[in-house]
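Justification of computing resources. Each target in the renewal requires a structure prediction run like the one illustrated here; the chain below, 283 residues long, is used simply to show the kind of job we budget for.
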Amino acid sequence: MGPLIHLVADYGGGDLAFAEVLQRLALELPDARVACTPVPAFDTVSCGFCVAQLGLTDGPRDRVVLHNVAPRRDSPMPREANAGEPFVVCELPGVLVVGPNAGHALSFVAPEATSMRLLAAPAAGSQFRSRDFVPAALARLRAGDRDAVGDAVAPDSVPPPPERAVAYVDGYGNLKTTWDRAPAATGERVLVRIGGHSATAVVGDGTFTVAEGELAFAPGSSGWEGSRSRRRFLELLLRGGSAAARFGHPAAGTPVHVEAVAATDGFAPRAGTSEPTSSTRGG
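Resulting structure tokens:
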């Protein structure tokens, strides 16, 4: 049985682009099993979070996490021959991560990488590089071709992950964040502000330890234990509803501000109820 290849991309769920890349991977690596994970368009934060969740957690050692989210925002100038961010190979214990060094796409895995090198695949010449160039380069890499990789990539070329921000929105509307420590004791209420929306939440040790209709801020199902760091992330869950909808569907990377609900505020709204922010509160 061949390797497990995770394809994380912003083509759009069920988009033809996924099928085309899978077809090309089947040509170059016919024994591989491919699983697809879509993320929003140009969303390198969600991409990086998914790449780390798939590459740093338990799974078969013979696997590749291949991503393609390349918004070409490293320069505002016109792109010659559709040039994009260079493709990089990150080596993790037993796992290869391959994809463009774009935005935060490699931010979560870079601290755990034993090496980062350029992939010998053209950075220009096609609008669809992940179909036209990467599968063949990946096949050479898997075959042990030393010419499949190039120069080392400087660690400081990869920005750190955004702190205390939205990292990923799952299909239930749960907001997975980069908070990895509880902001208050279990059972306490906090005020959460994301963009122009705010609501109170109960700090918990499990996402379902609140009643129906309540908003919880608690350790969720995401996180990993790497050789250099251990992360367990908190998420916002509205039991019986969508936390993403409650907060206006924030994009990944949006800061998540949390503060205590003080008794002297004169009110203690039920967890999950929206409150106006200071920019919208009447005088």
